[in-house]
Amino acid sequence: MDRLEGPPRLILVADLDCTLVDHDDPENNDLLRFNALWEAHYRHDSLLVYCTGRSFSSYMSLRKKRPLLTPDIAVTSVGSEIVYGGGESTVSDVVWTARLDYKWNRDIVVEETLKFPKLEPQPDKSQEEHKVSFFVGREDAVEIMKVLPGILEERGVDVKLVYSNGYAFDVLPRGAGKQGALTYLLDKLDIEGKQPSNTLVCGDSGNDAELFNISDVYGVMVSNSHEELLQWYEENAKDNPKIFHASERCGAGMIEAIQRFNLGPNVSPRDVMETENFHGESLNPAHEVVQFYLFYERWRCGEVEKSDKYLQNLKSLSSPLGIFVHPSGVEKPIHEWIDEMENLYGDGKEKKFRIWLDNVTSSHISSDTWLAKFVKHELSEGKVRSCSTKVLLSYKEEKQRLTWMHIHQSWLDESSSDDQEKWIF
């Protein structure tokens, strides 16, 4: 949370499975739409928080399968773990972990739950120090939830029981859960004088319901929400104007909520098919680089007309003296790389070619110059290659827009291109 010097404009808190990540959308269309919107308009002054029932290791496994952005904070294991960073470089919140030790004894929880034969333990990868997880049907879960807390209380253990998705049953310390974790984070920001302007929570299942109980937050239940969350809404929140049931699935429902509550820009750059003047926001370097790479993706997929005017337009956006340093180390003028794009038109159409940018930041290094930094991910034929990218941009008064002066890329995560000539920009 130290990334921002002042209060965040928006904290967006998203469950992962079936909320941000649509497992019925193998192309990840709405997730990619959200990614482009967040990096172009929110990353610079807002916080992205993932709040999931998955363990941290399971969440990291999902990152390898889906184009997830790096969050500022990852709340995992149904609120029993808080990690800052949420990517390859992370720091756990040890204060939060210590809080959860109060009146908690995992061994006693395991011992007592063994006496309920209907509780089927989940795999070891789903078990955590402060989370004991089972599979159980709804009717049995209701009966167990009536008696288990009292049994554990008699042995000095104070627990919270969370049931979701019609099968997942979690036993947590009393202070844990998604609501407890988010309340803790909001309190930390308040103490630091960084209370957010707005907070939006997004979910689809029973373990998300308590997020909507936090005062002064906006909430969206995506259209594909589970019955237990919809029932909770009917019984507790249908008259609350700050909580609504979206008409769109998953990531699209989250974008719908941003629009409904007027929380900021709500049109994803992926929904804008402007191909000649995609530099519309003249002094927003993040928007500039996101739009540039979206055009490049569309060119490679043959989704725009094959016309020299587009390549000439790209040249007009870059300095004739500008240099692109390829991640292989090869250096050539940016204009020469643009010329090579002509031979790649449409080559990604059958390869499910996609590009997304992550962690886009920009710094104003002089009166008319910005340095944009980000990670570029490129998917082709099921393989993801990633590189660290730096772009030097200069504002030209006569053009009334940013001009690309220099691009430098370096491979990440043992990435490399089998065909160096097809990795451009």
Automatic annotation (TrEMBL):
Similarity field:
Belongs to the sucrose phosphatase family.
Q: Any idea which GO molecular function terms this record carries?
A: magnesium ion binding; sucrose-phosphate phosphatase activity
In this entry, which stretches build a coiled coil? none
Quaternary structure annotation from Swiss-Prot or TrEMBL = Homodimer.
Its biological purpose is as follows: Catalyzes the final step of sucrose synthesis.
Keyword set includes Transcription:
no
Q: Which reaction does it catalyse?
A: sucrose 6(F)-phosphate + H2O = sucrose + phosphate
Q: Which residues form the Sucrose-phosphatase C-terminal domain?
A: 285-412
Q: Which UniProt keywords apply?
A: Hydrolase, Magnesium
Q: Which GO terms describe its biological process?
A: sucrose biosynthetic process
Give the matching NCBIfam families: HAD-SF-IIB, SPP-subfamily, SPP_plant-cyano
Know the name of this protein? Sucrose-phosphatase
Gene3D superfamilies the record matches: 3.10.450.50, 3.90.1070.10, HAD superfamily/HAD-like
Protein's pathway: Glycan biosynthesis; sucrose biosynthesis; sucrose from D-fructose 6-phosphate and UDP-alpha-D-glucose: step 2/2
- Sucrose phosphatase-like domain location is 9-262
